[in-house]
Amino acid sequence: MIPELNGDFLQWLRGFYYVAKTGSVRRAAELMHRNPSTISYQLRSLETELNTVLFDRYKKSLQITPEGKKLLG
Q: What does the alpha-carbon distance between residue 73 and residue 61 come to, in Å, rounded to a whole number?
């Protein structure tokens, strides 16, 4: 049985999707009408919940990991 997903988890997935598609937390935040800090929090929360790293963070850029690509697919 699949546990019920709450609204927060779905927002985390939405944030992940926009960051993965745009390659930018700032651009994702603009598209979602949120603050960049909110999107960063969503990404960290999703990574914690899934116990994996979805993006490698290099200074001011993000690189999607193989695990992130799987989730995106």
A: 21
Q: Which two tokens stand for residue 7?
A: 């609204």
Residues 55 and 61: their CA atoms lie apart, in Å, by 10
Binning pLDDT at 50, 70 and 90, where does residue 43 land?
Answer: very high
pTM of the model: 0.85
Q: Using alpha carbons, select from 5, 16, 3, 14 the residue that is nearest to residue 44.
A: 16
Residues 6+ apart with CB under 8 A from 72: 16, 17, 20, 64
- Pair of tokens at residue 15: 């944030």
What is the Cα–Cα distance from 18 to 31, expressed in whole angstroms? Answer: 8
